[in-house]
Design brief:
This is ABC-type dipeptide transport system, periplasmic component. Residues 69-520 form the Solute-binding protein family domain. GO terms for molecular function: peptide transmembrane transporter activity. One of its GO terms (biological process) is peptide transport. The chain has 615 residues and is of the alpha+beta class. The chain has three domains: 36-244, Dipeptide-binding Protein, Domain 1 (Dipeptide-binding Protein, domain 1), CATH 3.90.76; 257-325 and 592-613, Periplasmic binding protein-like II (D-Maltodextrin-Binding Protein, domain 2); 336-585, Dipeptide-binding Protein, Domain 3 (Dipeptide-binding Protein, domain 3), CATH 3.10.105.10. It is 33% helix and 17% strand. The protein is built from 20 helices and 23 strands. The strands form seven sheets. A seven-stranded mixed beta sheet has the order 10-11-12-1-13-21-14, with helices on both faces. Helix 1 (2-15) packs across helix 10 (295-304). It is globular, with a radius of gyration of 24 Å.
Length: 615
Amino acid sequence: MRYMKYLLVSLFLFAVGIFAFDPTTYVSVGVGEPDTLDIHQAYDTVSGEVIYNVYESLIAYKGSSLTEFEPRLATQVPSIKNGLIKDGGKTYVFPIRKGVKFHNGATLTPEDVEYSFERGLLYDPAGGPMWMLWNAIFGVNSLNEMIQKYVGKPVSEVFKDGEPLPEYKEKLVQMYKEVIDPAIEVEGDNVIFKLARPYGPFLTIIAHTVGWSAVLDKETSIKMGLWDGKPDTWWKYRNIAKEQSPLYATAIGTGPYRLVEWDRTNRKVVLEGFKDYWRGEPRLKKVILLTVSEWGTRKLMLEKGDADDIAVVLEYLDQIKGNKDIQIIDNIPSLSVTVVGFSWSVSPNSKYIGSGKWDGNGMPPDFFSDINARKAISYIINYDAVIRDVLKGYGTRIPAALPNGLLGFDPTLPLYKFNLTEARKALDKAWNGKALKIGLKFTLAYNTGNLMRQRIAEMIKTYLEMIAPGKIKVDIAALNWPSYLDAMRKAELPMPIFNWLADFPDPDNFIFTFYHSAGTYAPRQGDNFKKFVSTPRKELGGKSLDELIEMARNSSDPEERAKLYMKIQKFAIDNYISIPIYQPVSVRAQRAWVKGWYPNPMRPGNDYFELYKQQ
């Protein structure tokens, strides 16, 4: 079967005209496929790689730096020195570049920039990335939070069937006119952002062209069916379903590549160099992104030169070492963490918890709301073996969901330990020992082709069944990437395996994401989790974990922030909120003829404009 799959892929490559060496075409082979191409909903690195190369933001990270920026659609990077950061850090001015063309031939205007940001804020899809801009600009975490703050009523009381009740409609129009529209304004050739308060990481958020800061063509977007730009219609475009977005499978940007095809059946994306790109036509004329789940097939494609780079399985890295035609780039710094998470309130619609009851044929949805259930899982993962055998040493232990290299990381915090005896003791305390007396049955899922997640799932299955023979049954399911993401977002997975790559290099991007009730992972962890972290705690001085996180993110004193983050991490560790497995050290495998690649942990994949091929 392995070789049949490879034969089919090779026939496909031959059909599109790819040979062992073609300096104009680049083939990258991964294990995941895009989830969506809507720039304001995409929140995964696979979708992000496509968006990064098709769209552009106002500024970009300079090379491998995380602190220096360079202009893109803006002609200057705002600073206090050049006078484009004003009002003590509350006003940012971006002069917009002239003569830039969209892929459809339209010319970029400052109004396109204003529209793009406002559309994203008003769309604000559940589980999407727009919380960053809501917090940075307005000091709230979502559109819903702003609605409640401005109207004085929760969203559930303001809307019915997607439409505002008559008594709130004018208030929502005024919210747009008085709050949202004035925050992003066009003045001549400039776009001006007016923040509610100074926010240090603002430029790092603007620089990350994964989607949320990219720029759309306003006129084309409206014709396609996105927000029409009017103050009294915006709620009709709020939080629409992924597949219903007009941008779900379409992309029209100003970037170096234009989208030619997204073949979801054959899991293939084709990009073509944009001849009118303002920085010059790309050297690579065509980029093909393929999804191939099986390692053996990817390996053969790289060895034969039918792929220019592939997703690496570290467990099998030795198989391609020593080949003079293949370059291994290792010890690449990352700002990323991998954790085993818990849904404290699994969706009752989940097919991954069996019967959903205490009957030996399922798992109750709230099983992991018991601290001892979570504690038991912390003991059944052989962390050192994962790093040694699966990652081949390319990973380090972390005490909490915060990577080394960011403010607040503390290597003296305790690490979880592998101990099956303690795992059984904890399980015996969970729910008065029902798991051991009655039994549990549930399913662990991973995304197809991700051998790391597969091995972690297999380890959990093996040791859970070992400490409770005949009582605990764990099935394992492989899901394609979009299905895995959807199941996580709907809180259907009792124990999802998360990997988080930094959106911006600040501890808030991890701490808020993992531990706050409004964080990206909160919906995946369920209502019981949200209640837990938003409830005041004696051990936190009468404050909730949410409150501590808010204090840390809003403080301008690095020492104060560091102390708060250490306190937050200690609480998360003591309560087994999630189980951090490792911080990866990245490894890249590419053909030796690939030139121009450079590392940047903020980038979601390749920067194809900088890549070229030379023998």
